[in-house]
Amino acid sequence: MKVSVIIVHYQVKDLLRNCILSIQKYFQGFDYEIIVVDNNSPNPEWKVLIDEFDKVNFIELKENLGFSKANNIGVKSAKSEYVYILNPDTEIEGNYFKEILDFADSQDKFGALGLRMHDANGNFLPESKRSVPALVNSFEKLFTKLNNDSKTYYRNDIAETDIAEVEVMTGANLLMKKSVYEEVGGFDERYFMYGEDIDLCFTILRNGYKNFYYGKYSILHYKGESTVRDKIYLERFFGAMDIFIDKYYKKQKPFQYVLMKIGLKLKHFSEELKLKN
After folding, report:
1. Are residues 182 and 61 in the same domain?
2. What is the tally of structural domains in the chain?
3. Dihedral of alpha carbons 234, 235, 237, 241, sign
């Protein structure tokens, strides 16, 4: 089998249905399987999809283990050469995936690949192509709205429709060989949600592989339909950033580490104030 699509689901039944239908419509010319891992959705209505899609492998978790652990569980069940991590609030938009797999097959030291993403209004989502967080680009991301053609956190030096090597893509759509995923340890399970895709992409690079942004084709991403932006969201988001900089900067670059920790705390505080107003 060529590719296993891993979809971690939480409380977005209708979007998940559309996601599966789009895969079934456009995945042609190769063998594939779909594995859905439900993260203990509180509303059981989603289970109607089990009968609706009898060829999909549904895995029901007894508790919400978070994005990283759930994906790792899904990948363990995969029987394919490639795994494609895909959010349930996305839709494939064309019969292009065979070309993407051929591209991946042709690359020496292929690590991971992400497609161009846009929202329901057609707006490009800049997290499709990113740099590894560092001191300058992290402060730019947290505190400014710069939009120029330089190599910033969001790789504005790469056109939206380009095909290019990048450091970081998004976990909303991420293709890689299962063997590479297993070699680097998959998603770091210390991340409950957010930041795990940055960490995985960086780990892949550190193991000598190449990551690619494939802007020739796009997917639709409704983006965060199951996400409530409350205090818990802020704690998970900024907690994930803390995990990353503790892991890669605390010992290696202590001065940058201190500055980045201060920046994160300030931004976290300001976002909490916004919730209260």
Report:
1. yes
2. 2
3. positive
